[in-house]
Amino acid sequence: MARQSIRGDEVIAISPELIRELAPAEGIERIERALEIKETVMMGLRLSRGIVQEEFRRRFGVGIADIYGPTVQDLEGLGLLEQSAQAVLLTRRGRLLSNEVFVRLFA
Hints:
Layout: E1 2-6, E2 9-13, H1 16-22, H2 33-45, E3 51-52, H3 53-60, H4 64-77, E4 81-83, E5 87-90, H5 92-96, H6 98-106
Antiparallel strand pairs: 1-2, 3-5, 4-5
């Protein structure tokens, strides 16, 4: 590994051998579409912005309501989810009970 200074900034050069050594041993894991949707929903709901409706529709070709409609409505009624034209997100209460939300969505 070589070190040099360029205008006071330190630059570290890493050898290609080290990069190959640090790279994952396995290839890319391919997952089924249904699992990708579930993973996207679970990760999206953990974000403060929630799942952006338009991004979801663009990625999967369907809306969240098309897949989880009645369950989302039930969770809204329980005060665990909020749904708007822009996003679906966990409420404050939903964040505390997020495991319950995920169990109901993916049952």
